[in-house]
Amino acid sequence: MPTEDGFFCPIFCLLVPHSTIKPYFYHMILVTGATGLVGSHLVLQLLENRQQVRAIYRSEKSLGKVKSLFQFYGKLPLFEQVQWVRADILDIPALELAFHHIEQVYHCAALISFDPADENALRKTNIEGTANVVNLSLAFGVKQLCYVSSIAALGDLKSYEAIIDETTEWNPEVEHSDYAISKYGAEMEVWRGWQEGLSVRIINPGVIIGPGFWDSGSGKLFSQIADGFSFYTKGITGWVGVKDVVKSLIQSMESEQNGQRYIVVAANQSYEIVLKLIAEALQVKIPNRYAKPWMTEIYWRLDKIISLLSGRKRTLSRITARTLHQEHHYDNAKIKSELGLEFRTIPDCILEAAQAFQKTT
Ligand SMILES: NC(=O)c1ccc[n+]([C@@H]2O[C@H](COP(=O)([O-])OP(=O)(O)OC[C@H]3O[C@@H](n4cnc5c(N)ncnc54)[C@H](OP(=O)(O)O)[C@@H]3O)[C@@H](O)[C@H]2O)c1
Fold this sequence. Notes:
By secondary structure, the protein is α/β, with parallel strands linked by helices. It has helices at 10-15, 37-48, 60-72, 76-79, 92-98, 119-139, 178-195, 217-226, 242-254, 271-282, 293-310, 318-323, 333-339, 346-360; strands at 6-7, 24-25, 28-32, 52-57, 83-86, 102-107, 144-148, 199-205, 207-209, 231-232, 236-241, 260-264, 267-270, 289-290.
């Protein structure tokens, strides 16, 4: 029978494979994407805040990455406190099991890819997967959903505007990457949930820097620069440390601000500067060959041909090649003023990640 703060459910525990079976409580938080950069750091912070966490995973290999990260932070015992549930966000029956008696959901799971061949997979995982999370949140009476979107899903500036903020409108006439379209579509699902009565928050982070996960996202930049990558471009985008993303997620969830979105960018910085800072922190050669726009135009075409002939994944798409030379500035004033968030500097975040890279690779 339910008690005031929770109850034990042996049947549910029998149904959940691979989870650390324990009594569970009403103040239970569900994290999707818990085996990724953001989700794993979020789970760790929630556990440190003494929250009850259930998290979904898809493979033992991914769980191993989370274990290594907890070990790196000297927090391995906390790993055992997570209720791990094996589920894919596209597998509704499996996902449904994870939603029993959940009060808050942090939806961090997504496919991140800029390979045009992944268009369908992006739409399916990011839009359909988010629709599943929203529908189950509504069906199970979840109190709050916090969705990790991206600056890629923000709007497009008009010719007389200079900085992108939360009110900048998406222009469907402007060319966007499949990833951006999928994150924008996912946001639409979250807003639909809001209209149907779900309390939601959306976080739009810039490129996220943090320890672990060296074969994807900004982690790959560390690996490539350590391996002697020597090119840079002069485009500008928004950057942020993973711990600040986690702070923004938790603070927005704890706030009363239902139906709000926040840009989570510590600084707008050029690729040239960020690559230089990473190389300095790793004490390796600084990328010193400027890849001019005409060079990246040739490169993406060659890359496409090689990919078609060999079947290997694309390393640079046409849209990404152009983005690398564009200047996008993001305004972080809203999260600073409404949630009081203060950001760590990008050089600090890079230094911390570089030290982790050197210790763990
Ligand atoms: N990294 C960045 O620079 C950045 C910037 C802005 C926004 N974001 C957003 O932040 C969120 C987290 O990104 P991240 O950097 O942590 O990504 P990540 O390291 O690639 O992790 C992605 C997570 O999503 C999970 N996932 C993917 N497809 C799934 C599916 N079908 N079912 C269940 N889980 C699935 C992955 O599980 P597996 O381990 O099993 O693959 C992994 O746990 C994403 O929504 C991303 O769009 C990231």
